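Notes, Module 5: Reading structure tokens.

Key idea: the token line is not a picture. It is a compressed description, and you learn to read it the same way you learned to read a sequence, by spotting repeated patterns. We will look at two proteins. The first is printed below with its tokens.
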Amino acid sequence: MESDLAQRWQRLQAEIPPTVQAVAVTKYSTVPTLRLAQGLGMVHFGENRVQEAQQKQEALRDLPITWHLIGHLQSNKVAAAVRCFSWIHSVDRPSLIGPLQRAIAAAGTSPKLLLQVKLEPDPDKSGWEESELYDHLDILRAATDLNWVGLMTMLPLGYTGERAYTAFLRVKNLQERLWEQGWIQLQELSMGMSADYPEAIRAGATIVRIGSQLFR
């Protein structure tokens, strides 16, 4: 198992430019597998659920790991997420702003936050639509205690090849339009997973989230 994981990690490292951060999606992996992965050089781990992540973090507290929340953030989990994660990729609605502010004030620390956007129609995905995001820019700008660093997106099931690339490019274009409005701090683009990370990188991703290409 160790040699297989090592080979897959080496292959990904060869394919992913050094300017792009690979986050290993560890939601289905056991603690021993994560120890092995960390020993191979993976230090950015992505989890979907706060409670499951807390259990793994406790078991791996002796290792230098950067934890990313990449799944849907429930309002009642905000305080725990702020304490447990260095990155939260899934700020997907305006109602999270207040709870995040209160949790960050209580914790005395702020994770890096990404706005999850949904620029392609999909009832199974959450996120800010472009018009909704623009409508809330003043509120987001006023939340100066929140550490906004970029955008995140997830594509609808079945988007591959050029269709995936075109969708990712829409997010990149949105990022550039936001820069023109003064949101230069939004430097990160978290987009692309095991099935479509080459297209995401070609469109300008700075972070890709890799699960099945690593852990099988």
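Here is the second protein, with the sequence above and the tokens below, as before.
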Amino acid sequence: MRTYELVCILHPDLDETAFNDTVEKIKGWISESEGNVESVDNWGRRKMAYMIRKQLEGQYVLLNATMQPSATAELERKLRLLEPVMRHMLVLVN
């Protein structure tokens, strides 16, 4: 098991329920791959440096997780297909 940081920029027009549902869906995908979510840090709405999908703001969320390296490709594939996620970055911590 390795430790990863996952930063996601979610669509700014999501209400609190839709935002929480999206974060829970991502946490569920990590758990399904026998991973573990250590912490979730909601950074809130922030202005972005450039437009993404005609938006200048996004809702940022940081997830610290441990999972197998073989599970990262499937997680990133699912994140690319999840509509509310405008951008994501998965980084190996150690």
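Summary for the second protein:
- Strands lie at 2-10, 36-52, 55-67, 85-92.
- Residues 16-32 form the longest helix (17 residues).
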